[in-house]
UniProtKB/TrEMBL annotation, chain B:
Protein name per the record: Sugar ABC transporter permease
Family assignment from sequence similarity: Belongs to the binding-protein-dependent transport system permease family.
Keyword Transmembrane: yes
ABC transmembrane type-1 domain location: 70-282
Topology relative to the membrane: Multi-pass membrane protein
GO terms under cellular component: plasma membrane
Compartment list: Cell membrane; Membrane
Matching SUPFAM superfamilies: MetI-like
Gene3D superfamilies to which the protein is assigned, alphabetical: MalF N-terminal region-like, MetI-like
From TrEMBL, chain C:
Pfam families: SBP_bac_1
Name the record gives this protein: Sugar ABC transporter substrate-binding protein
Signal sequence, renumbered to the chain: 1-30
Keyword Nucleus: no
Presence of the UniProt keyword Signal in the record: yes
Stored PANTHER family: ARABINOSE-BINDING PROTEIN-RELATED, DIACETYLCHITOBIOSE BINDING PROTEIN DASA
InterPro entries: Bact_solute-bd_prot1, SBP
UniProtKB keywords: Signal
């Protein structure tokens, strides 16, 4: 009996916590289906006639499809680039205990991003790369790369070394061992760290304000532009906010196991 | 032959590209920033930067607005960090147990931290709206007086901290839960034999064991809380007055609103130093108390 | 590290050369080939075929309309326009970054003359337009009001063509005033009395709303200050601590603090207008150009009850500001200056200004204002208020220094401290010292 009530209390409090934390997102979704007048009136919070007007406005007037595409290109591009540089680096750091290097790369996590903006703009203008995906991908890699290395070091450390050693004795080169043996069993780690990199690139606002133009404008900048000079259109803003968070929420739901371990992995051995 | 060379130097071949990339992308901006901090320059194409030595630093250290922004940064950081840690550990202890739908709960719990901060800032702007926002409606339901939230000098930083706490407590929580799941069983069994209460088990066994994990989580949060930009920029832009103008926002204002590149750069150098000190402090604490 | 140094002289000389060279190429150049209709190359010979032009425009009441008219311009000139709209702060900040890097884009952009003219001119970012404008008879520069041109001039260089003018006016709720039997306030004292009378927070109606946000509030405070006989500065002397300035500030604080809605410290014009448009305030003072947000039924719950009145008079009469809010400028580093001029000339030419005005956007051309048709785009009762306002208006609405943004923040402190209950006189004294520092610093260079 006592056990039962305890369990009930536990699950009630657990779900209460979840509800509280989910509330702002629920509120966002609700408001995105309300007209301006419905948002303004405080009578019917939960019962109202939903409208799709905000969504159609966002897609028709503001070409949001294009921004979604831009964000996706930058997120995937920068993640691929980060994997290419980050996986071998993390492996070497893990195997050869190069803690010093790990720290150097961590510095990138520590410096305020604002530091980069003007120098980068000058650099990229000189290279004629402003408003190109190249510039955005390169800059976003500075966010993704430390993440990938940070998560992959403990992952590689946790792999049993016997297999690698056996392969080496069999005459495989170290490079081959990494390519043929280590990488194929690193799937979970790679998925985890890639998801982190994608999410943080998708959410990045500061770099795009300066380095993106009309061709490459990403979602966070688009939604910020959405608060136009002439009105506070709450419904539209909420619809845009829903559109920008939806893909990420889907990723989190589908790949929750990886995302959870990703956020926790770097911390365990860190 | 080539493979032999590759194998001998593999640690460099593997790490150099990444390290070079990071250094290239960061060294130029850092060097540039430090250099400009000794000049006065309004981004002019006509008037070149003028050497002013340490004037920018002296001017900053004598300005009220700078100290206000240091205060705002520390206030926001301490508030968010303490609440996130305490709340994160407490919630972890609840969510870590077995209950119905644990996996779904865990996933839902993830959502705030992966949601785009700029968008979330705008969502909270609506929640905090004094006349139509959900925050004051809740207060009314429970019979409290409505607040001004972001529109009040004294409430702005706590209101912003709530946004950060909402977004990032789940992260602290997840890390702590991961730590909890690796705890050994023996100490609990022997405590059970000694007839320890649940509370005693928590204080004497659980918390000391997950302490390293908590410190790591705090460290990760500290680095990011200090630099919080998106949610503040999307909501108050440092207002009302200068109440929520943190170092990061003030830097942005100096650089992109007032075009004082020299001042902005010297502020960045100071800001960076502050972050570095904090980080080193955390690393030291971790060494003393941690793993 | 080399900083770009582009001697200003060369830019100016090369511009003059370009123009005079052009003057010799007959009907194939935009500035001469244009007709009175204002559309370049009305004879349809697409003078800029295959060229592209990059335009950054501040998001205001004109931007969307201009975007809708672009195809016509592209068709006539043969060029392609890359047209981007930004919110004010973002535009300012994006421009500064691009100009710093010596970027050739955007070719054309909007500036807020009173905010940016001095700094941008000092930094050599803007192409003087005197020659372009005066060479072009059909453009008729003299048609622009004197005051609008002067605000877009720095060091004798015309660095922008006025696009949008605005004045501070008083918005009020016809129904509420009628119910309470209150006349439209003609003086600031009457405004205060009326706001007090109509203030009913329990019913969710506040007597008065205006901007309380740092920086943003300064322009709307200015008309209060002018009407009480004060100003931000007298030449190189800061005058924030004069009795006139303090009296005006105290009134502004009083109105917002005692009869205003909660959260006013975070209100720029969109939020303050929002309160009014949702029927939560009896009076609202702000710039004339934002009126569509109050009168458009899609955005406003009180669209049919909006009244307009000239800014009430203080002890020195009614002195609202009347300024050029936006002007179109050309990037001095632009690689397509003739195309850029063709665009500016198209947007600010008589045709388009008239179209915009029919669309409800007040321009700066006298001929359009005098054309009865030019008034058709505005709600009833609006035009007389504007005409009344302009008579006694002041040509600036913010401090006249290079570092406007910084000065605005300093001045804001007086109101903000007042709103949080600190002593206004002490705050004004302190702000005055700070503001004087800014002025002196700029003089020293």
């Amino acid at each position: 009996m006592k056990q039962k009530s305890k369990a009930a209390l536990l699950s009630t409090s657990a779900w209460l916590i979840i509800l509280i934390f989910s509330f702002p997102l629920l509120w966002m979704v609700l408001a995105s289906f309300k007209t301006q007048a419905q948002i303004m009136s405080t009578d019917n919070l939960l019962i109202f006639k939903p409208t799709l007007k905000n969504y159609s406005a966002v897609f028709e007037q503001y070409n949001f499809m294009k921004y979604i595409g831009n964000s996706a290109v930058v997120a995937l591009g920068s993640t691929l680039g980060s994997l290419l540089l980050g996986l071998p680096a993390a492996y070497a750091i893990a195997r050869y205990k190069l803690q010093g290097l790990a720290l150097t790369i961590l510095v990138a996590r520590i410096i305020p991003a604002i530091t980069f903006l003007i120098p980068w703009f000058i650099l990229f203008s000189g290279l004629k790369l402003v408003d190109t995906f190249t510039a955005l991908i390169l800059t976003h890699m500075l966010v993704g790369l430390p993440f990938i290395i940070w998560i992959m070091i403990p992952f590689f450390e946790s792999l049993p070394q016997e297999i690698e050693e056996a392969a080496l004795i069999d005459g495989c080169s170290k490079f081959k061992v990494f390519l043929r043996i280590v990488l194929p069993i690193s799937g979970p780690g790679v998925i985890t760290s890639s998801l982190m990199s994608i999410i943080f690139s998708w959410n990045n606002f500061l770099f795009s304000i300066i380095l993106a133009g009309e061709k490459t404008k990403t979602l966070p900048v688009a939604i910020f532009n959405f608060i136009s000079y002439s009105e506070v259109n709450w419904g539209g803003i909420m619809a845009a906010a829903c559109i920008i968070t939806l893909p990420i929420i889907l990723i989190a739901l589908v790949a929750q196991r990886y995302v959870v371990s990703g956020l926790a992995a770097g911390a365990l051995k860190g | 032959m080539r493979t032999a060379w590759l194998d001998k130097n593999i640690k460099w071949v593997f790490t150099l590209p990444a390290v070079l990339f990071v250094i290239l992308m960061m060294a130029f901006p850092i060097f540039y920033t430090v250099r400009i901090s000794f000049f006065e320059w309004s981004m002019s194409a006509v008037t070149p930067p003028r050497w002013v030595g340490l004037d920018n630093y002296i001017e900053l250290l004598n300005s009220e607005r700078f100290w206000q922004s240091v205060k705002a940064t520390l206030y926001f950081t301490v508030l968010a960090l303490v609440v996130e840690t305490v709340l994160g550990v407490a919630i972890a202890l609840v969510l870590f147990r077995e209950y119905k739908g644990k996996n779904i709960a865990k996933t839902l719990f993830l959502l705030p931290m992966v949601s785009t901060p700029v968008a979330m800032g705008l969502v909270w702007l609506l929640i905090y709206e004094p006349t139509i926002g959900a925050a004051n409606m809740m207060l009314k339901w429970f019979g409290f007086k409505p607040l001004e939230w972001l529109g009040n000098v004294n409430q702005a930083i706590p209101s912003l901290a709530i946004i950060d706490i909402w977004q990032w407590t789940p992260m602290v929580c997840l890390i702590v839960m991961a730590g909890l799941s690796t705890l050994p069983k023996d100490p609990y069994e022997s405590a059970e034999v000694d007839g320890a209460s649940a509370w005693q088990k928590l204080i004497y066994i659980t918390l000391p064991l997950v302490r390293p994990t908590i410190i790591v989580a705090m460290m990760l949060r500290l680095i990011d809380v200090l630099k919080t930009f998106d949610i503040i920029y999307a909501t108050t832009q440092g207002g009302p007055g200068s109440a929520s103008e943190t170092l990061n926002i003030y830097t942005y204002m100096l650089g992109f609103q007032f075009f004082k590149l020299g001042s902005a750069s010297s502020l960045l150098v100071i800001f960076f130093t502050i972050i570095l000190i904090f980080t080193l402090l955390m690393i030291w604490i971790r060494k003393r108390l941690g793993a | 590290m080399n900083f770009r140094r582009k001697p200003y002289l060369t830019a100016a000389v090369s511009a003059v050369l370009t123009v005079s060279l052009l003057a010799g190429c007959g009907s194939n150049n935009a500035s001469e080939g244009s007709t009175a209709s204002g559309s370049p190359a009305a004879n349809g010979d697409k003078p800029f075929k295959g060229k592209t032009l990059s335009v950054y425009i501040g998001s205001n009441s004109t931007s969307e309309y201009i975007r809708s008219q672009l195809p016509e311009f592209e068709e006539a000139t043969g060029m392609k326009v890359d047209f981007q709209v930004f919110a004010n702060e973002q535009l300012s900040q994006k421009l500064s970054v691009q100009m710093t890097a010596g970027s050739a884009t955007p070719d054309v952009f909007t500036i807020r003359p009173l905010e940016e003219t001095k700094l941008f001119e000092k930094n050599g970012w803007l192409q003087p337009l005197n020659d372009y404008a005066s060479k072009d008879a059909a453009f008729d520069l003299a048609d622009f009001s004197e005051s609008s041109l002067s605000s877009a001039t720095a060091n004798g260089n015309l660095i922008g063509i006025p696009m949008l003018t605005e004045q501070q006016i008083l918005y009020y709720r016809k129904d509420l005033l009628k119910e309470a039997g209150i006349e439209v306030p003609k003086t600031l004292d009457e405004l205060k009395a009326a706001a007090e009378k109509l203030n009913d927070p329990d019913k969710g109606i506040y007597g008065f709303v205006a901007r309380g946000q740092k920086g943003a509030l300064v322009t709307q405070l200015s008309s209060f200050v002018f009407s009480e006989g004060g100003d931000f500065q007298n030449g190189d002397k800061a005058t924030l601590n004069t009795p006139e300035f303090i009296k005006a500030s105290a009134l502004y604080v009083d109105l917002l603090k005692n009869y205003g809605p909660p959260g006013v410290l975070n209100m720029g014009w969109p939020q303050a207008m929002g309160v009014f448009a949702q029927g939560k305030a009896a009076f609202f003072t702000d710039t004339s150009t934002v009126y569509p947000n109050a009168t458009d039924p899609d955005k406003s719950t009180i669209a049919d009850q909006v009244g307009f009145a000239p800014f009430p008079s203080g002890s020195s009469g009614a002195k609202p500001y009347n300024i050029t809010a936006w002007a179109l400028s050309m990037n001095s580093q632009s690689k397509s200056k003739d195309e850029a001029w063709a665009f500016i000339q198209w947007v600010t030419g008589k045709d388009m200004v008239k179209k915009l005005q029919l669309h409800g956007t007040p321009g700066a051309r006298t001929s359009v204002w005098n054309d009865p048709e030019g008034e058709a785009g505005f709600p009833q009762g609006y035009i007389p208020v504007i005409q009344e306002s302009v008579k006694t208006a002041i040509g600036h609405d913010r401090p006249q220094v290079i570092k406007v943004g910084e000065a605005r923040d300093v001045i804001s402190e007086i109101i903000i401290k007042g709103l949080v209950g600190e002593d206004i006189t002490a705050a004004a004294e302190k702000a005055n010292v700070e503001f004087q520092k800014i002025i002196d610093n700029e003089k020293a260079k």
